[in-house]
């Protein structure tokens, strides 16, 4: 009997030991994966900021409007990439606030200049001087990041320790050289005056209250459940949902940051989801996986985006334009009320073209702007509005839209899609008084259509 019991206990100990070792190996693999994610984000950030320094200098000296549109558009993209990579680093919110805001403003300022240039209004002396100031700032930031990169290469960095230190000492001075260096960069950027420009994220618009942020405050557990239910996960994979800290999204919406990862790291990707603390609305979702070679086309990817959005709280949305970035299709959707396309109420969905999985989502435009509107009836008929167009424009299509003005006001317009020679345009005629409110040039690329 004693030998039998001893055998049972020995077997149990062996099984327990094997299970414990398996759990240890799994935890180690998770830590290595997370370390690699942070390391990649850091080096990508260094590259993004260095590219921004080069692109801003090229834009200042460019004498070609067409070339400058490309350069300014590239600045916008690189600034967005830099923000995404910066957001993945386990640094305190206080450490990153001003740097994130600076990158947002740099990107949006470049975008507004690109729009002006495409409309036949190249940079004037004041705008060039502003871009020069931005170049000086981004170049200084690039130099600081390169120095920090050299220090990381020389001394190494444990991102897990940085993350733990940031959480414990949030809003306090960090003892880690990495967090401290980022704080110094943040303080240097904070010394510069606020950038003012007629763009969608300028400071006077950032102070708006989110109009669609409805509902009661939710808990961490509710946020995790909503994040898990929202994202497009692979079948037959066991995922772990964990908190990734509290933060504040663009447009000053407090969020819970949720991290979703496979229990076995090698079986899948890490997904980050931001859930608003008020109402539990998904503000952002991003899948970190690498995208393989495309196996589906733009039309199929668009259908995937539409099908995904139809299952969310964001209803009555129609696609307005799309852009292919390598093998990812980014689709913008606007809210449709009756027969009116409401452009301010915007969400974006990203679809991987290797398998049709939704890998990105953003709803800040919608949450900031969507509300119950009393849309006016048009005072001009479609025919009357069409007569306001220049006769050289060949009209292909028309529809009613609500568009935002640079003042923050919204105006009901007829949108005319037309062409002149080889160029395509969107022209907006005020449906109440016939004013030509806006002209956008459509730039067709292999990846999709830009509106400038």
Automatic annotation (TrEMBL):
Where is each Sporulation protein YpeB PepSY1 and PepSY2 domain found?
A: 179-376
- Residues in PepSY domain copies: 379-435
Could you list the residue ranges forming a coiled coil in this record? none
Q: Please state every residue range assigned to the domain named Sporulation protein YpeB N-terminal.
A: 27-161
The GO annotation for biological process reads: spore germination
Give any Pfam family that matches. Answer: PepSY
**NCBIfam families, sorted:** spore_YpeB
Q: What is this protein called?
A: Germination protein YpeB
């Amino acid at each position: 009997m004693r030998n039998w019991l001893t055998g049972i206990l020995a077997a149990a100990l062996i099984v327990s030991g094997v299970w414990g070792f398996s759990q240890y190996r799994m935890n180690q693999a998770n830590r290595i994966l997370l370390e690699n994610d942070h390391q990649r984000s850091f080096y990508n950030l260094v590259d993004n900021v260095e590219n921004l320094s080069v692109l801003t200098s090229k834009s200042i000296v460019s004498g070609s409007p067409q070339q400058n549109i490309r350069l300014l558009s590239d600045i916008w993209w690189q600034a967005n990439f830099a923000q995404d990579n910066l957001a993945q680093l386990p640094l305190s919110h206080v450490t990153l606030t001003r740097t994130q805001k600076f990158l947002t403003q740099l990107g949006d300022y470049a975008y507004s200049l690109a729009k002006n240039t495409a409309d036949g209004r190249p940079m004037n002396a004041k705008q060039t001087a502003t871009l020069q100031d931005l170049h000086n700032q981004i170049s200084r930031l690039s130099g600081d990041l390169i120095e920090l990169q050299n220090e990381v290469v020389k001394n190494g960095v444990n991102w897990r320790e940085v993350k733990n230190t940031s959480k414990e000492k949030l809003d306090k001075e960090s003892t880690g050289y990495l967090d401290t260096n980022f704080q110094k960069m943040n303080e240097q950027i904070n010394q510069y005056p606020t950038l003012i420009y007629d763009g969608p994220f300028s400071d006077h618009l950032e102070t708006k209250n989110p109009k669609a942020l409805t509902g009661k405050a939710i808990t961490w557990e509710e946020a995790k459940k909503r994040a898990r239910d929202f994202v497009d996960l692979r079948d037959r994979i066991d995922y772990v949902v964990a908190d990734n800290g509290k933060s504040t999204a663009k447009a000053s919406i407090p969020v819970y940051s949720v991290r979703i990862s496979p229990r076995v790291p090698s079986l899948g990707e890490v997904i980050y989801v931001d859930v608003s603390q008020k109402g539990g609305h998904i503000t952002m979702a991003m899948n970190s996986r690498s995208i393989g070679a495309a196996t589906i086309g733009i039309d199929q990817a668009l259908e995937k985006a539409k099908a995904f959005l139809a299952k969310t709280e964001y209803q009555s949305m129609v696609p307005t334009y799309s852009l292919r970035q390598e093998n990812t299709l980014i689709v913008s959707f606007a809210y449709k009320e009756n027969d009116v396309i409401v452009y301010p109420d915007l969400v974006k969905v990203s679809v991987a073209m290797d398998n049709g999985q939704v890998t990105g989502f953003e709803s800040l435009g919608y949450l900031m702007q969507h509300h119950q509107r009393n849309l006016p009836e048009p005072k001009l008929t479609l025919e009357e509005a069409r007569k306001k167009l220049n006769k050289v424009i060949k009209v292909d299509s028309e529809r009613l839209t609500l568009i935002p003005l640079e003042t923050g006001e919204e105006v009901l317009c007829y949108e005319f899609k037309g062409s002149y020679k080889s160029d395509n345009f969107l022209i907006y005629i005020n449906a109440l008084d016939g004013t030509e409110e806006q002209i956008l040039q459509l730039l067709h690329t292999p990846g999709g259509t830009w509106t400038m």
